[in-house]
TrEMBL record:
GO BP annotation list: protein retention in ER lumen; retrograde vesicle-mediated transport, Golgi to endoplasmic reticulum
Name of the protein in question: Protein RER1
TM helices/strands, residue ranges: 62-80, 116-134, 140-157
Keyword Transmembrane part of the UniProt annotation: yes
GO CC field: endoplasmic reticulum; Golgi membrane
Main location: membrane
Entry superkingdom: Eukaryota
Keywords from the named record: Membrane, Transmembrane, Transmembrane helix
Topology of the protein relative to the lipid bilayer: Multi-pass membrane protein
Length: 194
């Protein structure tokens, strides 16, 4: 009875080892890409261009593209939203400042930039793979889908921008702020004026 099942165990072990090794190597390169956002987004832009070129050449898979657009819109809303929504969640001290006298609290996203990038990149890769299976090529009048997505995008962005205005937050920071210090006005004698 010792020999029974040993063949199955011997084939599973190398497969599990290969899967574990691949997972570790993938995570290693993913971790190394973290401090390089420009290169990561350029890679995603290349994947998006390949996907768009594939859909254009095949002249199909518009439902896949529509689903991809809705998914990216959903990710964008998560990226632009604060982690703690002042309208929905009970305030536990970690909220956005709403008045000038409130203390400064940094903007923390519901969906961090790295996860946003990773999800979009995976979405383009999965959508690209779906274009090789004819079952996903549903015949549809694509201008209606495009019009509906554009309307949905503008309505969603309008709601998000109104939320930003109401709670006075900006989800983007343009570099590090530099403070030059206090500049003194000098009098004609060269001494600082009060």
């Amino acid at each position: 009875m010792e020999g029974v099942g040993s063949d199955a165990g011997s084939t599973v072990a190398p497969l599990a080892k290969w899967k574990n090794d691949f997972s570790m190597a993938f995570q290693y390169y993913l971790d190394r890409s973290t401090p390089h956002p420009v290169h990561r987004w350029l890679g995603t832009l290349a994947a998006a261009a390949i996907y768009v070129l594939r859909v254009y050449c095949v002249q199909g898979y518009y439902v896949v593209s529509y689903g991809l657009g809705i998914y990216i819109l959903n990710l964008l809303i998560g990226f632009l939203s604060p982690k703690v929504d002042p309208e929905v969640e009970v305030l536990d001290g970690a909220s956005l400042p709403t008045r000038g006298s409130d203390e400064f609290k940094p903007f923390i996203r519901r969906l961090p930039e790295f996860k946003f990038w990773y999800s979009i990149t995976k979405a383009f890769c999965v959508a690209f793979l779906m274009t090789f299976f004819s079952v996903f090529d549903v015949p549809v009048f694509w201008p209606i889908l495009l019009f509906y997505w554009v309307v949905l995008f503008f309505l969603t962005m309008k709601r998000q921008i109104m939320h930003m205005i109401k709670y006075k937050y900006i989800p983007f920071s343009i570099g590090k702020q530099r403070y030059t210090g206090k500049k003194f006005a000098t009098s004609s004698s060269g001494l600082p004026r009060d």
